[in-house]
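Reminder to self: tokens first, then the designed residues, so the page reads top to bottom the way the pipeline ran.
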């Protein structure tokens, strides 16, 4: 059983590759730049292709029986518009099992997956714990995190848990036809996370809440594009309460509780040390 992993060079995808290899599967990795250094293990076949241009995916899909499909590319998590073409190609290639990393969108991608005649599961983490690495420079330099919307709480998931769930579904099946939201064991605010990082590093760290205007000024000074600033402020101002909901997905699929942010912080403490 060869499994095609898309997004295989990313934070989450390389973990999926790793877990599938541990499950004894042959893994093929998709990247848009196959000539570059992927850092993937030597026994992983690296194949070129771009999910936004389905005609480039023929070689990648040849002979695979399962696919982990990145259903949303880009920072805005916009669903792939090429879902129908990709599903038609996957079905023709004999793919039998599919995990789709995409939010609940009810659009073209979802319709195509449902109609594709393969065993599918949608998997979506509300928020990945490694997003906290975006604070690493500031914490190392100033021991402070400065952000707006301090009250927002998210049930962030450890990327290793998300990858293990995806690999288990691809390798062993189960939970077919379901949408699974993968979370950690608790919903935390940014200040809670900074406190966990302080405990993990043994450093005194501070969280300071900014107004929208202060955040705009800070992010401009850091060189963020206006479009990115507007997106972040809009996203945090309109974040739905559901992002704080803890799910039982990790326990249901893996038979063990999800890893906590405190554990993630301890695993990654070096990135936050001065
Ligand atoms: N960060 C979060 O909190 C969060 C929350 C929910 C969902 N997600 C989803 O999780 C996904 C993976 O996250 P991550 O942190 O692992 O991402 P990442 O480290 O930024 O990696 C992105 C991956 O997507 C691939 N990719 C991007 N556009 C592509 C395209 N057009 N065709 C083929 N491959 C493409 C890249 O491959 P190459 O550059 O090698 O081509 C790379 O492997 C994201 O796409 C996002 O939708 C993230």
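Designed residues (274 positions):
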């Amino acid at each position: 059983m060869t499994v095609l992993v898309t997004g295989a060079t990313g934070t989450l995808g390389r973990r999926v590759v790793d877990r599938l290899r541990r499950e004894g599967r042959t893994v093929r990795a998709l990247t848009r730049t196959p000539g570059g250094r992927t850092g993937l293990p030597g026994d992983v076949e690296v194949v070129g292709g771009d999910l936004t241009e389905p005609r480039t995916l023929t070689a990648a899909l040849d002979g695979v029986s399962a696919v982990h499909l990145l259903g949303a590319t880009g920072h805005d998590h916009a669903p792939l518009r090429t879902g129908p073409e990709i599903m038609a190609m996957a079905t023709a290639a004999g793919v039998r099992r599919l995990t789709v990393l995409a939010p609940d969108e009810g659009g073209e991608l979802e319709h195509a997956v449902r109609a594709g005649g393969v065993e599918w599961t949608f998997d979506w983490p509300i928020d990945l714990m490694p997003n906290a690495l975006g604070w690493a420079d500031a914490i190392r330099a100033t021991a402070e995190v400065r952000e707006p919307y301090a009250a927002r709480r998210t049930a962030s998931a450890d990327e290793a848990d998300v990858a293990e769930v995806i690999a288990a579904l691809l390798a062993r099946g189960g939970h077919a036809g379901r949408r699974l939201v993968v979370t950690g064991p608790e919903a935390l605010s940014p200040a809670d996370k900074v406190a966990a990082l302080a405990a993990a590093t043994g450093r005194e760290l501070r969280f300071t809440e900014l107004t929208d205007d202060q955040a705009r000024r800070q992010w401009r000074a850091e060189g963020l594009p206006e479009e990115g600033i507007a997106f972040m402020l809009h996203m945090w101002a309109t974040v739905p309460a559901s992002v704080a909901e803890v799910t039982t997905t990790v326990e249901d699929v893996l038979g063990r509780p999800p890893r906590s942010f405190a554990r993630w912080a301890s695993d990654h403490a070096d990135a936050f040390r001065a």
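The beta strands are 2-5, 26-31, 45-48, 66-70, 97-101, 119-125, 144-148, 178-182, 206-210.
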